[in-house]
Amino acid sequence: MVSERTVLLRALCGLLLLLAAAAPVTATAEPLAVPFQWRQAFIDAPDGTRLHADILRPNGLADDVRTPVVLTVSPYRAHLAYLSEPRLNGGPSTDNLQADMFLRAGYTYVVVDLRGFGGSSGCPDFGGPGERSDVATAVEWAASQPWSTGKVGMFGVSYEGWTGLMGLATKPKGLAAVAAFEPVVDPYSYLYMQSVSWKFSGKPVTETGVRPADLAGLEHLLIASTPARPDDSPEYQSDAARLPLECYRQYLADTTDHDGDSAFWRDRDLVPRLRGNTIPLFLGQGFVDYNTRPYRVFDLWNGLGPGEHKAWFGQWGHRTCHDKCGTPHFDTELLAFFDRHVAGRDVQVPGPRITVGQFDGRWRSETAWPPADVTRVPVRLRDGGYTDRGLLPGPDSEFWSVSEPLAQDQHLAGLPSVTLRAAGPANATVAVELYDIAPNQQATVITRGIAPVGGETTEVRLLAQDWPIQAGHRIGVRVTDVVDDVWSHSPSFAPVTVSEARLELPMLTAPRTADLPGDVTEGIVKWRNEKTIPLDPAVLTDATVPMDLPNRLAGR
Fold first, then answer.
1. Fewer beta carbons below 10 Å: N end or C end of the chain?
2. In the CATH hierarchy, which fold is given to the domain comprising 374-545?
3. Residues 530-556: pLDDT tens digits?
4. Would the pTM of this model clear 0.70, i.e. be above it?
């Protein structure tokens, strides 16, 4: 037993050293731009777990002055380090939380560590009943404090956006609104696409996918093993040092299960749990996010109940649009959303229900996404075949179907899908990539998807995008085994034959007017640089297929 734990701890320490070596040498905690009061507390969860909280109050505010509360519940806010970045100055971890904006506006900002992380006791359970209980406990605790008005709004990106959605799922007393950006909505589809492992980036060295999703559990255990600082309280230090071996074993076994129908994964899927939700949600998702891909988040969005929900969908990565989106109005809308729903102030939230950033750098408003006038255009693709060879190159690795040059501008908005018959070994995969091919043969990836080969038919649901395609360009479809920097796949080295392949393209039937201010995002520039390839003209030979695309000359 001792030997097994020692081996695992050594593996975790090795991974920590690897991440530390990859982190910028000058990385330090991001200081807040406003003065604040800081205190700490421990919260008793129903099962006896003790949750650590950092409480930030506007400077000079008396203890008995009640304020609305913004809450982030997180696995990432240890006092010693934020993810792989050492926090040399200590204190509460507030990097990327926009806590200064909320403090200026008169909110108390509370950060609570999930069980097993930071200064909290217990075992992490990756979005399971323990973590959902932690979120409910944290909200109700914050709402009941003498310095709270009783109204709590949750804010976060990524895992911290996921915990906000857990709040919506548990509906704790006092939860007034949630802002969740790039959230996990279904942890299975976050790690696996139809049982095939996603690859995550190697940031800060590279954004290219290099880390298979099977390592995610180990990486989270590494974060959970972050020690306390010497100046932390004895209880914080004790909880940070204690992570029982049984936590490790079960966590690793569950998070490496590729079966999306297991009880573990079904229990953690928030899409059905949030169906009909009426608590106001401000949801954000980047179409070019390398981490939480634009996939089932739209199932969640379109399953919400009535309410003053709001969304931003556009061309950015794993972040909010606080900066690097060319949009000066994101923070204004975010603060107004909290002021209205959490602080109870008599303000209107500016902007449309849905803000959409198109891939051409223009911005528009929508009332639904995918938009209501989208039609799904069926396209019969060419039959063909390839060898499931993985990293090994070869002339038989792919085949293409390509449209004629478009007679007029077109606009894809939604999630394309492909249904096909693929004959080959069950451990082979079929990947589909959709391209925008310019007249100079430069082809840019629009979106992609993958599925295992097997069964009578194979369904491949591609990621979502909102992408205008200019007249004179072509739409290209590449069918292959795998995209090596996107998915992790052990090849079968066997031939796969594809027949009766049918693509469905979600295309707007009416033109759109760019009615919102905004510019080209950093995400668009990166995507064009990294996802554009020169296409051999020979690829187009005998590859043309008809596409009966909408006539979009009429106005909306």
1. N
2. Jelly Rolls (2.60.120)
3. 999 999 988 888 899 999 999 977 544
4. yes
